[in-house]
Amino acid sequence: MPKEKKTKKIDTKKSTLQSNSNQEFLSNFNWHNYEEGIDLIDQKKLDEFEKLINKNFVDTSDEDVIEGIVIHMTDKEAIIDINAKSEGVISLNEFRYNPDLKVGDKVEVIVDTREDKTGQLVLSHRKARTIKAWDRVNEANKTGEIVDGFIKCRTKGGMIVDVFGIEAFLPGSQIDVKPIRDYDQYVDKTMEFKVVKINHEFKNVVVSHKALIEADLEEQKKEIIGQLEKGQVLEGIVKNITSYGVFVDLGGVDGLVHITDLSWSRINHPNEILELDQKLNVVILDFDDDKSRIQLGLKQLSAHPWERLSDELKEGDKVNGKVVVIADYGAFIEIEDGVEGL
Description:
By secondary structure, this protein is of the alpha+beta class.
């Protein structure tokens, strides 16, 4: 046992001597004599010296992102230690997003200027964030990862979204599955997005929130379609109004109520009786084989007007009515809701 202890002591001493030797060599190295060829250095010693330099100092000529530590702060600048021959400085303007920055914080930086006019090493945190942000955006686009984004403002055709510090474009058509009428309601909101397109040449990023909704709705759609039956009554929401009818969202599946199936009474346009986002019950009238086109009805949920006619009404009676259509061959008179005579 004593012999083993003695051996460990000797090894430790050797290690210490070797370290001291390297440090002494580094501090006493004569660069002038070496460059002039006066002092010839053993290649093995040079290799050890190069390893020592690489281990202890950051190469400021690299354009890689480096992690540094804030060691001092002034009113205008932060002094960063990046384990180089000198500390670097960064303007505090680059940390406006982080007002709580303090000494001891670790920050990602990149060497902006190796030596300015005062001989100072200048670093950039903003550029480092941008590089890292592009790495994350590219990775999200590649893997389909869902990212958080902050909607900053409106722009032509959509919105500007901050994603990892990069301004991305959110087209108006990619906000939701239903048409958007008030874009301002989304400003200053944080939402989840999917990176759907990157143009590296122009540094453009396009994101979509609709893509996430569609993925969820696709599962709901399969479930709803599997349960559809003719005559089934479902609750829906008016999604879109056209001159020929109304599209109703049944919870991931859209159906059409033709204008002739909206009311027993004659109407000129669906917006006379319905409005966007209105909830209503509809009945399934028909659908195609793959149930991609669903025909809905609204008037069918109420009794036919002819069934409500008074039993006392008979031929020859005088009644009041309203002229609803005038044609070459006569006029259509409505005597009760949904009941017309020529």
